[in-house]
Amino acid sequence: MRPTLGYLFSWLLPRIFLAGLAIGIGVLAGALARAMLQLPLLAEFIASGVAVGILVFVDVVRCQRLLQWLRTAMQDPAPRDVGLWGELAYRIERAVRERDKTISSDRLQHAQFLSAIEASPNGVLMLDGMDQIKWCNRIAADHFSLDPQRDLLQPITNLVRSPAFVAFLQTGKFDEALVLPNVRGIGTLSVIVRNYGEGMRLVLTQDITAVERAEAMRRDFVANVSHEIRTPLTVLAGFIETMAALPLSEAERRRVLTLMGQQSQRMEVLVGDLLTLAQLEGRPRPTADRWVVLDDLLLRVENDAQALSNGRHHIHVQTDTHAELAGIESELLSGVANLVSNAVRYTPEGGDIDVSWRMLGDGSGELVVSDTGVGISREHLPRLTERFYRVDGSRSRETGGTGLGLSIVKHVVQRHGGELQIQSEPAKGSRFRMILPAIRVRQASEVSLGVESAMMHAVDVF
Ligand code: ADP
Question: Which residues share a beta bridge with 187?
Fold first, then answer.
């Protein structure tokens, strides 16, 4: 930028004034020397010496003040001055303040950037050219059991002893993620490495234990479904072959057809249960504003149970609960029906089956299905609600079970914000409790009271 005239004069004029003043004093000193010493050459020398001396002295003093300020941390304002030194001090101060501002905004940005990485759900670790840790977030430290402060500048290969990880870093080929099973004995870690800068490496870690478990469950599920469907299909194919190849008597033909009917029904039930599960997983959670009359639901359950039992058990279903449940009727029915059908199927002839409802102290309610059947030993209880988990496979299949019933019940209860609790003792019987939260439970008396008070209020108003 070209200096303007005003800008020039702002420091040039005081300087010319000062030079003029110095020359004036010098001339005075020269005249004095000439009068006193009568030596014209020396007087001129003294005159110019005094003038230059004054100028140099003034400059040294002002320069010294500026230098003094520059030598400090420059937190105080720069020395105020006029002319060239004033302008210089002002310009330097402005440059310093701007630099400070840029540094502190860079620092802030850096801190924000680090805290964003810190908040990442994945581990982030930076290595220098020697594979020493430059920085790592808490998740990466957790994944590799590191101390983010103490282990800084330590070679990572000294701290993470997994041979697979060390070899991975040494190969330098990072096209695919490295999967480390059993990290710290608990889970599976996926490690991605990328080169950046000059020989630096960025290590990203992700805990994929849940993903792996879900994938294993999916594989098991597909294998189980295939197995469950293949068995009746094989039986059906066998019967079809027999009927095609052999001339059967009327009695034999009827028997084969009955068996074929049973197998196709088994497949139908299985597909039905699979569809129910798929729907439960796909649908949004039931809202808490659609009320189902529990007694109607229990009446239907009782009829089905009596039909399934065919008079072999003493079945008692409480149908005067006067309770209402908020949720999806078909789901709640399927949940309770599965529990009652299990009770019938796993209780020998002559046993008791009881279905009852109880309000709990905190406003929640529980529907209890208990039986005096074969019971379940303790070690099976935690796995009962897994898909296709059966304690006694042959009994389950004989009685038309699919291994999906309790899984459906658990889903239904959880979708309604509740909990399924199971108590059982071998040879004594079982007790399944569906506990539903207070927000989804109301007694009919509460409803009628509500209506009554609303009516009273309406009467008051009129
Ligand atoms: P299934 O269709 O095989 O009955 P479920 O998921 O309903 O499948 O139940 C899982 C397993 O739990 C059953 O195979 C059975 O061994 C056991 N079980 C369920 N309910 C009862 C019960 N009331 N009494 C004894 N065992 C039961």
Answer: 183
